[in-house]
Structures are given as structure tokens and as C-alpha cells.
Amino acid sequence: NAGVTQTPKFQVLKTGQSMTLQCAQDMNHEYMSWYRQDPGMGLRLIHYSVGAGITDQGEVPNGYNVSRSTTEDFPLRLLSAAPSQTSVYFCASRPRQGREQYFGPGTRLTVT
Amino acid sequence: GNSVTQMEGPVTLSEEAFLTINCTYTATGYPSLFWYVQYPGEGLQLLLKATKADDKGSNKGFEATYRKETTSFHLEKGSVQVSDSAVYFCALEDGNKLVFGAGTILRVKS
């Protein structure tokens, strides 16, 4: 069991560039989420999904898109990167009936 | 909306000292409460949880009790080790998602 995996680990983008952060889980969890972590602000929810084909916005969705075509994968897309999106991004998953969320190792993104 | 407030850090302690990290919450109803820990360079791991009032969660010598009267879920450990140095996050369950506090950095000196 690899758990929750994220790629890449580090990324540097220029303002205006686009990219996709990958997240995959092999635990057959229905729920998946994306958070960003900024100093002094804890983790804030960007988008989440309760199952394949279903996504919803979290607290800070602007500038990000998601889709959930399979149970395993939940990619996060930045359409036009901005310096305000410099952050550490965490993907998480949990089973429908469970309470514990399992987090990936994170992607550190810098936008210059 | 629901929110979590944690004591600001960093908290610096000597090895074998007693640890308390305060956490209070604002919520409708009685959500499940969690403490997550983030070691340097890693993702978050669940440390302990409590799903109803008066529940005590415990793991690795850490404890926290769900107190609905004071809307608190303070984290305690009787004797910290250098290996406990990490960032600790208090969180509550809000529907399908977690609401996190800002995190508290703990540094333990030998």
C-alpha cells in the first residue's frame, strides 16, 4: 500500500504558467481533498470530492480546478499561476465511513 | 462558521518537560476533534481523535479530552522527547472536510 502519493515534490513556476499537481491513492477511498498550507494559517481546503465525478469547492478555490474521473486520482490544476499561490499543497483521502484523513507528503510550489 | 483556535508558538521545552498545547473550537453541534502532527519535511499524520464529549484520545503518550463545557481539546504529554519536535494541528470535522487551527511549532531541546 503506497497510501496517498503526490507529484512533484517541488515545483517552480513563472507567473502565468499552468501546471497540474498529481494526487493518487490506492486505498479505494471515496473522499479526497486538496489543502494548501501557509505559515500562520494552518491548512485551508481548496477543493474536495466525495466520489468519482463529484467535486465541490472549499474555502479557497479561486485559481484552481479539479476533476475526479476515477476513484484513485484527484489532480489539481493551476490555470494561470500567481505569486499568491506559492504554498505547500497537500492531498488527503478518507473512506466514506471513516474519520481519519490520510495525507500525502506534499508539493512545495513557488511562483515567481 | 466552524473554527479552531490554537495557542501560538513556537513552544520551546527541555526534554522530559510537561507539554500543553491549547485548542478551543467554535462549532455547531459536537463535531469530532483531532490532533494531527507534522514532522519536518513530511505530511500530516493523525495523532489522536475524540468523537464525542468527554472522550479522551491518546497515542504515543499524548492525550486530549473533548470538553464541551469549555469547547476545548487541549493536547498534553507528561514528558516530551526531542523526537516530539514537530508542528501540531488541532482540527474539527465539518461535514466532509476538516477545519484546522494555525498549528503550533514545538521544539524540544536535549
Which key features would you list for this structure?
A: 112 residues; seven-stranded mixed beta sheet; 11 strands; 0% helix; globular; B: 110 residues; mainly beta; four-stranded antiparallel beta sheet
List the helices and strands and how they pair.
The complex is a heterodimer of chains A (112) and B (110).
Chain A: E1 4-7, E2 10-13, E3 19-25, E4 31-37, E5 43-51, E6 54-57, E7 64-66, E8 76-78, E9 87-94, E10 102-103, E11 107-111
Parallel strand pairs in A: 2-11
Antiparallel strand pairs in A: 1-3, 3-8, 4-5, 4-9, 5-6, 7-8, 9-10, 9-11
Chain B: E1 3-6, E2 11-14, E3 19-21, E4 23-26, E5 33-38, E6 44-50, E7 56-59, E8 62-65, E9 75-77, E10 86-94, E11 97-100, E12 104-109
Parallel strand pairs in B: 2-12
Antiparallel strand pairs in B: 1-4, 3-9, 5-6, 5-10, 7-8, 8-9, 10-11, 10-12
Structural class of chain A: mainly beta
User: How many distinct beta strands of chain A?
Assistant: 11
The averaged pLDDT of chain B comes out at: 94
Determine the strand fraction of chain B and express it as a percent band: over 45%
State the assembly state of the protein chains.
heterodimer
Helix percentage range of chain B: under 10%
N/C terminus separation of chain A = 36 Å
Q: How many strands of chain B?
A: 12
Radius of gyration over C-alpha positions of chain A, nearest whole angstrom: 13 Å
DSSP summary: helix tally of chain B: 0
Q: Average pLDDT value of chain A?
A: 94
Total number of helical segments of chain A?
0
User: What pattern of helices and strands is seen along the backbone of chain A?
Assistant: EEEEEEEEEEE
Largest sheet of chain B: 6 strands, mixed
Morphology of chain B: globular
Rough outline of chain A: globular
Q: In whole angstroms, how far apart are the ends of chain B?
A: 41 Å
